[in-house]
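Key result, reporting period 2: structure in, sequence out.
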């Protein structure tokens, strides 16, 4: 009997969460303002229901002194948030990606990595060899050796860069392996 109550309570909690999500969508549809959204914690097994305000977006701007970096930092583009992404459609070689980023954002690339796998590093002797390879080829080769589960459609790239000898804050890069998947 106890197991039946728990399953029933879990199903009811799931239904309640779905209803709250629908109410949030209706609110957005009617007001078109995201500031009416709420975070919700709901668990009917222990009779707990908490709704809180969503956190404000943190917008990054240039700073003469940043406490985390202990120095100046540049934001490209200005008013960048943690939810922003730069989408790059592949396939591209490392050299093509570096060239695109340097031209588009006028920054120097120091390091390109994803899931702890280094794809490019500006100080290693392997630069000339790896620059001619496709990003996905380098990543999948290393991921298979480390037995890392991989997404077959895209990578989230972390790119360390600098501009005017200052560290740069930029969005994450979503590198899509084959853009034909997303053209439909």
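The corresponding designed sequence is given below.
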């Amino acid at each position: 009997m106890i197991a039946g109550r728990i399953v029933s309570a879990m199903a009811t909690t799931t239904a309640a969460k779905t209803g709250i999500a629908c109410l949030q969508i209706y609110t957005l549809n009617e007001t078109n303002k995201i500031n009416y959204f709420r975070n919700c914690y709901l668990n009917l097994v222990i009779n707990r229901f908490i709704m809180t305000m969503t956190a404000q977006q943190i917008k990054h701007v240039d700073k003469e002194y940043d406490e985390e970096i202990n120095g100046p930092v540049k934001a490209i583009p200005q008013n960048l948030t943690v939810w922003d992404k730069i989408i790059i459609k592949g396939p591209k070689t490392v050299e093509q990606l570096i060239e695109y980023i340097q031209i588009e954002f006028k920054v120097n690339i120091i390091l390109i990595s994803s899931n702890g796998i280094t794809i490019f590093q500006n100080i290693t002797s392997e630069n000339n060899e790896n620059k001619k390879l496709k990003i996905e080829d380098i990543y999948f080769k290393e991921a298979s050796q480390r037995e890392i589960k991989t997404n077959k459609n895209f990578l989230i790239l972390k790119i360390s860069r600098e501009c005017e000898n200052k560290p740069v804050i930029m969005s994450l890069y979503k590198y899509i392996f084959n853009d034909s998947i997303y053209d439909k």
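The helical segments are 2-31, 94-105, 127-131, 135-146. Residues 180-184 have pLDDT under 50 and may be disordered. This case is discussed further under Risks and Mitigation.
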